[in-house]
Amino acid sequence: MTQRPAKEWVLFNMELRHFFSDRQNLKFIPLVCLAIVLAVWPYIGSPFVPVVLAVFSGLESQYNNLLFRSPAEYETLSLFPVSWRHIILAKNLSTLTITVILFAIVSTITEYFAPEAVSFGDHARALLYLSTILFPLLSAGNFRSVQHPRRRTGWGLEELSESVVMVAIVGILSIPYFVLIAFPVGRLACVAYSGLTCLFWFRRSIPRTEGAILTKHSALCLTP
Amino acid sequence: MPHAVNILELEGLVKTYETGHRALDNLTLRIPQASIFGFIGLNGAGKTTTIRIVAGLCGPDRGTVRLFGREMTATDSSYKAEIGFVLDEPLYFDWMSAGDYLRFVGTMEGLSAGESGKRAAELLEFFDLAPKGDDPIGTFSTGMKKKVSLAAAIIHSPRLIVLDEPLEGIDALAARTIKDTLTLMAGRGTTIFITSHVLDTVEKFCTHVAIVHQGRILLQCRTNEIRRKAKGQLENETYASLEELFVEMVSGKATKKHLSYL
């Protein structure tokens, strides 16, 4: 019996393979070095701050330019019998997976160099924090991907400035976590907030992004 | 049942770009099933715009596109499973190897993973791409990219294949292989819609032909009926080839140019 793989799964795998084979992602080497320097620096704050900075600035195009991770990607995907809703879902899920993998790798490296041991509580808080910002980041990225698409991404000044913007967005989207965690039932509130943001991403952001793509389709495609 | 025999129908297509250039001006075209339909015209006549509209890469300002008897809409992508496209600028993921890309296209078009792998390997052999099957497509020559694009267009045995200048940049041997393959597919019921600048090829290879000029269709008929159809439309009714007919039809509508020093 032959089985037809779900197209979302095929796209999800393709996205992961692209990310881990893309030489442009060698930019994570200097970013991790910077994270190590920050981790050993005597400063006040969570030991995961350098990890957040390195991971999200490095993944900027993964979030904010999902239609053009390679130059002709948008047009190529347009030719397949699959809806944009499914393409966005697959791309977003792969971005989530990549973020979690990188977060684990970079935090392991920085913890190795950190002067003080990182407690279990720190890990739990980092996970909780991550859960509160991932879906808002995906939603914001979906919006920016359609409104400000970049046909090419690389190592240029534009990417550097976009990475700075990404860090600023991460900072803004972190506010709810710091507000909620200050309450007595802060952890529970954070979990509920994460659930709501996940619902918003799935029920609102993905369909709206699909609608925006269909509206701007001709402009997004190369004109002859 | 007006749509039963026409697999693709373009009705009154109008497309004006933001620059003000009107690429299509009330273009109407009917592609019969199992035909090899040659679509010819000068550069900028509207061929590529027509193909891009059929591919869903841009929408017309006015007019309708009917595929397999139903009207094409922006939200419905299911019809694409029955079409294979080779566009003027081949579309692919440049970082993928040819083998991986063909397997990816096969599964995206609805084939099982096993069948995709089997067909991808066969297509790589067929188009002499097997030795480079593991190299990224981005490193390929123009001709090889065209071959990958064509292989991707036929991997899922589509009912309609749309090709924009498929033989451009391809060597004579590969061109022959491609034409033989397309003829075989047409013989089995696949419809081929092809644009080309090589009029000699179109005349020998296509069963039907349409001439487009400034976004309008000047002539549309079976290739063996061109002589009869041309009568009444042209001053000089005798011509030796499609090229002569094309030049006569289009030259009256285009400005003749001369170099002062020749």
Folded structure, characterized:
- The complex is a heterodimer of chains A (224) and B (262).
- Chain A has ten helices and no strands.
- Chain A is mainly alpha-helical.
- Chain A has one domain.
- In chain A, helix 7 packs across helix 8 and helix 7 runs parallel beside helix 9.
- The N and C termini of chain A lie far apart (44 Å).
- In chain B, 32% of the residues lie in helices and 24% in strands.
- In chain B, helix 2 packs across helix 3.
- In chain B, 43% of the residues are buried.
- The mean pLDDT of chain B is 86.
- At the A-B interface, helix 1 and helix 5 of A face helix 1, helix 2 and helix 3 of B.
Instruction: Report the structural category of chain A.
Output: mainly alpha
Strand content of chain A: under 5%
Apparent shape of chain B: globular
Question: What's the number of helices of chain A?
Answer: 10
> Order of strands across the widest beta sheet of chain B?
6-7-8-3-9-10
As for the number of domains of chain A, it is 1
List the total number of helices of chain B.
8
**What share of the residues of chain B lie within helices?**
25-40%
Low-confidence stretches of chain A: none
Tell me, rounded to a whole number, the average pLDDT of chain A: 89
Query: What is the helical fraction of chain A, as a range of percent?
Result: over 70%
